[in-house]
């Protein structure tokens, strides 16, 4: 099973941090630079293995995800925001349910740090 990480991004440092944390856990990564080029520059300097898509303007979250998904060719897409900090092994753990052939989609909960409250 092949994996593509998609990151719609406004924060260059966030996009780079996420890419570094998932490096080696995915086959490809696609970052949509919704910040007018500053994300592209940071990603190309720090994570040149990732693809950066540059829309003409800030598309917003949903349209940026759609744009990236149209470019993805992998079996699985993992969508990550540019303000998360995935722990080592996150991608592997998130994909574990796909070992069951009856599973076709997995959604993760984002927890508020230091509490049991669900953010989204």
Describe this structure in words.
- This protein has about 120 residues and is α/β, with parallel strands linked by helices.
- The chain has four helices and four strands; from the N terminus they run E-H-E-H-E-H-E-H.
- A four-stranded parallel sheet has the order 3-2-1-4, with helices on both faces.
Short description:
By secondary structure, the chain is of the alpha/beta class. Helix content is 31%, strand content 17%.
Residues in helices, as a percent range: 25-40%
Question: From the alpha-carbon coordinates, what is the Rg to the nearest angstrom?
Answer: 14 Å
Question: Biggest sheet: strands side by side, in what order?
Answer: 3-2-1-4
* Strand elements, count: 4
Number of H- or I-type helical stretches: 4
Q: pLDDT under 50 segments (min length 5)?
A: none
- Strand residue content: 15-25%
Largest sheet: 4 strands, parallel
- The overall pLDDT, averaged over residues, is 92
H and E string: EHEHEHEH
Structural class: alpha/beta
* Overall morphology: globular
Q: What's the end-to-end separation, in Å? A: 27 Å
Primary descriptors:
single chain; 4 helices; alpha/beta; four-stranded parallel beta sheet; 120 residues
Topology, element by element:
Blueprint: E1 3-9, H1 12-22, E2 28-33, H2 38-46, E3 51-53, H3 61-71, E4 76-79, H4 90-95
Parallel strand pairs: 1-2, 1-4, 2-3
Helix pairs in contact: 1-2
